[in-house]
Amino acid sequence: MAEITQKLVLPETFQGVRDELAGQIGMMWELIKAPLIVPLLRLGVYICLAMSLMLFMERVYMGIVIILVKLFWKKPEKRYNYEPIQDDEELGGSNFPVVLVQIPMFNEREVYKVSIGAACGLSWPSDRLVIQVLDDSTDPAVKQMIELECQRWASKGINIRYQIRETRGGYKAGALKEGLKRSYVKHCEYVVIFDADFRPEPDFLRRAIPFLIHNPEIALVQARWRFVNADECLLTRMQEMSLDYHFTVEQEVGSATHAFFGFNGTAGVWRIAAINDAGGWKDRTTVEDMDLAVRASLKGWKFLYLGDLQVKSELPSTFKAFRFQQHRWSCGPANLFRKMVMEIIRNKKVGFWKKVYVIYSFFFVRKIIAHMVTFSFYCVVLPLTILIPEVHVPIWGAVYIPSVITILNSVGTPRSIHLLFYWILFENVMSMHRTKATWIGLLEAVRANEWVVTEKLGDSATKNKSGDASKNKTNAKSAPKRLRFKFADRLNTLELGFAAFLFFCGCYDYVHGKHNYFIYLFLQTVSFLIAGFGYIGTIIPSS
Fold this sequence. Notes:
Keywords: Cell wall biogenesis/degradation, Glycosyltransferase, Golgi apparatus, Membrane, Transferase, Transmembrane, Transmembrane helix. Its EC number is 2.4.1.32. This is glucomannan 4-beta-mannosyltransferase. It catalyses: GDP-mannose + (glucomannan)n = GDP + (glucomannan)n+1. The protein is α/β, with parallel strands linked by helices. It has helices at residues 2-72, 76-79, 112-120, 140-154, 171-180, 204-214, 234-257, 272-277, 288-298, 319-346, 352-387, 395-409, 420-443, 460-464, 469-478, 487-490, 493-512, 518-532; strands at 99-105, 129-135, 160-164, 190-193, 218-227, 268-271, 302-313. The protein has a seven-stranded mixed beta sheet with strand order 3-2-1-4-6-5-7, sandwiched between helices. Helix 10 packs across helix 13 (420-443) and helix 13 crosses helix 18 (518-532).
């Protein structure tokens, strides 16, 4: 009997302790919730609503301007002096300026042949063209292959130079800067830069260079990127949607209104005199291209974006590569903003409204606020208001404003409109990494200058989708193998952690909530889980 009594008493004792502990925790929560948690969360809501309004007004402004540009602005050939360069048998190539083509590379095993071949195929007099392959590869086998490819084209009469450095100091900026110091570059007037996965059409220089020749105030002509592997998987399709808005709207508006935009680091032609006037390439951030563009703009130089001049390139097709790329693209601008904001304010050569545009619109809203509000509002603050119902988020801030922003963002890629909803969820996932990178850049933390070269796999898979069966079979044999990761290597704990948090908030809202946010939260949970388990690069999108 005593044994039975002991067995019955122990569970009741444990249950009593558990209930007492739960009661104490609940009492402590009630004590701190009203004076501390609720005001802090309410402040977070106000800050997020303010950031949402800033982003909303920016998107509306951009939308209005791009409509006006498309309807009323003259084409670049009409706005600027433009006259195609004519071939002259008597003059030979002497009426063509000398152009330098720089191709920075780092262990580009899969794409070096295509990029070098495309550069060597440019329609320009051979005695007025210098191609410079800047190889920072650390793999001896890759270095040898690239050097042999350069020698092969040199044997065909192409003026191509293979350059290496002892160290990778300054990364890409260091390589470009070193390349411009070569003695044979001194007689070059312009330099065009192509990353290793870019393949310009033969007429690229003939379409871009005349703007620089006849308009001495223009420092940069930027072309648009097109993506050979956009349909490879859902990851690449999502990237296409984001980048198409950047080119279709942001670059076009900047070019048309202030003759300023961020150089994209590739597929652009620079006036070498403008590079020198701006102080040359600097490696103080991971966005050496944007750094140079801002400094050149502060010197009074103008930029021109040509939306119909397009260059094929490749998107990262693995989630790991894409995360590293986004870290660099988010951390670098924030770090550059920290270093240049006072320089921009004190500058005497540009007008007040251009300073406002560069500081507020270009840097603060697009490079900082856009990342922070997406993550902090929709992945942190909004879910927390479900757990603390005393804090209310107005419907216009939770639904109406983000809906309008999303619709405005979708104008860049009409063919992917049916993927718009998942694009929102995917951008929310990536905003976590972008927000983290933005804070690292602003605070100049440990990873502020981290540079991981984006992995390129080549576009063999894209080629295999077209052509006859025999050609496909040949391409399949020569296609580079996609990297296979172990399941443990695929796991991303940060994404999985947020998936658990959002799932808990969704369940709580389903049971106790009044706003039906659980629908969004469960869908966002699925997106975080897909990214957390590393499968986002394996999903094939519908057409």
